[in-house]
Amino acid sequence: MPKLLVLHGPNLSRLGQREPERYGQTTLAAINQRLQRLCEAAEIDFEAVQSNHEGELIDYIHAAADEGVGYIVINPAALTHTSIGLRDALLAVQIPFIEVHLSNIHARESFRQRSYLADVAQGVVSGLGAEGYELAARAAIRRMGG
Ligand code: DQA
Predict the structure, then answer these.
(1) Percent of the chain, pLDDT > 70?
(2) Is 104 helix (H, G, I), strand (E, B) or coil?
(3) Global confidence as pTM
(4) Pocket of ligand 1 (CB under 6 A)
(5) Of 7, 122, 3, the residue nearest 68 (C-alpha)
(6) Strands 3-8 and 123-126
(7) Mean pLDDT, to the nearest integer, of 43-53?
(8) Which atom of ligand 1 has the smallest separation from the CA of 11?
(9) Catalytic residues
(10) Residue-wise pLDDT tens digits, 107-134
(11) CB 5, CB 36: distance < 8 Å
(12) What is the rounded distance in angstroms from the CA atom of residue 107 to the CA atom of residue 122?
């Protein structure tokens, strides 16, 4: 069975409480549950992990290659704007990925408007809140043949 890996970066464990006017009321657990249901319906394996640590996210990306993960959906959070390491990890494993942001990073501070991942992503969803994860997961599932 193909597998979808969803990676959530720093501070996303606080969703629901963290700047709800910007990031919404939906918790990370609720987002993951919706994505899990989508995968179950399509008979796609699913794993979601959150980490506040760049190196740990890189380790998950490496492990994904060894496990044969077919697609990654990633919200790199603040690491979007800083992490050449995450970019290099995704390039190293050559697993197609979709970058997701709850907020529209292009409508925010200039330092958020640069992504180190976007040009090597299959696609980017930004500004559609929690729904953005679902849209990305649906696209990934379809591309895996689910
Ligand atoms: C974010 C946008 C980033 O700039 C920010 O650092 C986050 C969340 C988003 O989902 O809108 O932590 O990735």
Answers:
(1) 100
(2) coil
(3) 0.97
(4) 11, 75, 77-78, 80, 101-103, 105, 112
(5) 3
(6) unpaired
(7) 98
(8) 12
(9) 23, 101
(10) 999 999 999 999 999 999 999 999 999 9
(11) no
(12) 21
